[in-house]
Write a structure and sequence with these properties.
DNA endonuclease activity; metal-binding; five-stranded mixed sheet; alpha/beta; CRISPR-associated endonuclease Cas1; Four Helix Bundle (Hemerythrin (Met), subunit A); 2 domains; DNA binding; 10 helices
Length: 342
């Protein structure tokens, strides 16, 4: 169990939730924990055992949302009472999304987080593996990313912002292959290929980005936002545009580092992939299970959140960022604070 930003996260999958007075009772294997409900805005459960009708009624009466997620973080349902708060939040989201100037102001914080995190991935590589990479090139690209960051912070045009993001991504990708330190004969990265993935690295990146997009969309639904209406990514039928916005800052630090670790620790190997007749590369069924198991382990790892200055699991990061975005849209924060990792 974890309480963050007036939200109670129940991570244990076999917990039962009930009510006792004005307290939420979380019961698990003869152990009971009590949480005062008077200042809660939301309760989020991952693969819960059950919740009492009394608790659900109490939450509905007091505008406390009760969110049910599967163990892997996929959204199932959100139970709320009168939806006045939810309506106002989404209305603000839609209004800002229609205004490209306002959208740019929000989107540049997503991109600031992305480029900042890419820069510090490179800086860590120069610190930890200076004998195995081209340090001069890494430092040069790191400086270039710093220059782009300055442009992004002052950018007021959405198309120009996309251009800066594209430049930063191209620079970062130039040295991505050098960060593959093991199994170089089997794993390499020349460029990003999506549909289809044409090498093993891209196959893993695409799969992990899909998992992260699902988790991020669930996080946005959890706080009452519309995952399909974004600021950087514009509306397109069937595309979770806001989820893609929010995950920009997490791509490098969450997914790229995860995929690199699977290769460098030899958890994924050549035999885990199949090359098809059309040139696309896919994981075997067993490899996908292994990948998902490692992804679950990654979600349990801890980091100190730079804005909250609290230790949380990586699996909660999309939910915390969604909460912070909702608070900004409600006017509780002056701007959205992206995850700035070092």
């Amino acid at each position: 169990m974890r309480k963050l930003l007036n939200t109670l996260f129940v991570i244990e999958p076999d917990a039962y939730l009930s009510l006792q007075g004005d307290n939420i009772i979380v019961e698990r294997e003869k152990e009971k924990k009590r949480f005062p409900a008077h200042n809660l805005e939301s309760i989020v459960t991952f693969g819960y055992t059950g919740a009492s009708p009394a608790l659900m009624g109490y939450c509905a009466d007091r505008d406390i949302s009760l969110v049910f997620l599967k163990r892997n973080g996929r959204f199932q349902a959100r139970v709320i009472g009168k939806s006045k708060g939810n309506v106002l939040l989404r209305k603000k989201q839609y209004l800002l999304s229609e205004d490209e100037t306002q959208s740019t102001t929000i989107a540049r914080n997503f991109i600031t987080g992305k480029i900042h995190n890419h820069k510090w991935i490179l800086e860590r590589m120069t610190r930890d593996y200076e004998q195995r990479i081209d340090v001069v090139q890494f430092k040069e690209i790191s400086r270039h990313l710093s220059t782009i960051l300055s442009e992004v912070r002052n950018c007021t045009d959405l198309e120009q912002l996309r251009g800066w993001e594209g430049q930063a991504a191209a620079s970062y990708n130039k040295v991505f292959d050098q960060m593959i330190l093991q199994q170089k004969e089997d794993f390499y990265f020349h460029a990003r290929s999506r549909r289809p993935a044409t090498d093993k690295v891209n196959a893993m990146l695409s799969f992990a980005y899909t998992l992260l997009a699902g988790n991020t969309a669930a996080a946005l639904e959890t706080v009452g936002l519309d995952a399909y209406v974004g600021f950087l990514h514009r509306d397109r039928p069937g595309r979770v545009s806001l989820a893609l916005d929010l995950m920009e800052e997490l791509r490098g630090v969450y997914v790229d580092r995860f995929v690199l670790s699977l290769i460098n620790k030899k958890k994924m190997q050549k035999r885990d992939f199949i090359e098809q007749e059309n040139g696309s590369v896919i994981m075997t069924d067993e490899a996908r299970k292994k990948f998902l198991s490692a992804w679950h382990e990654k979600q349990q790892e801890k980091l100190t959140h730079p804005y909250l200055v609290e230790k949380i699991s990586w699996g909660l990061v999309p939910f915390v960022q969604a909460l912070l975005l909702a608070r900004f849209l409600r006017g509780d924060l002056d701007e959205y604070p992206p995850l700035l990792w070092k």
